[in-house]
Amino acid sequence: xxxxxxxxxxxxxxxxxxxxxxxxxxxxxxxxxxxxxxxxxxxxxxxxxxxxxxxxxxxxxxxxxxxxxxxxxxxxxxxxxxxxxxxxxxxxxxxxxxxxxxxxxxxxxxxxxxxxxxxxxxxxxxxxxxxxxxxxx
Length: 137
Known about the structure:
The protein contains 3 helices and 7 strands.
């Protein structure tokens, strides 16, 4: 074990804005993917994401605010009454974070679940990786 990785070394997220990164990820679910109003969704994307952001989802890779907005809007249109609910706490490590979530009609058991994993840069989401446990119905 190296000195950097020893038990006596600084914790891996020391100096990182853990709360800020967790907030980005927690806001992303309702304000981007759960938002039905295009103007509010676009404003959230501009606030939460870097201009050169990259979204990695099973259908493909989407780059930039406009591509992310179109993907999120198209997805929202397929399930307009679904909500995204965190399943457990956000975990932050260095400049990354992950959050498990479920999606389905409000107040009901999720119809599909997944995990979002982000890479943050300069206080914004630079990359979002979406892992689905099962595809939406």
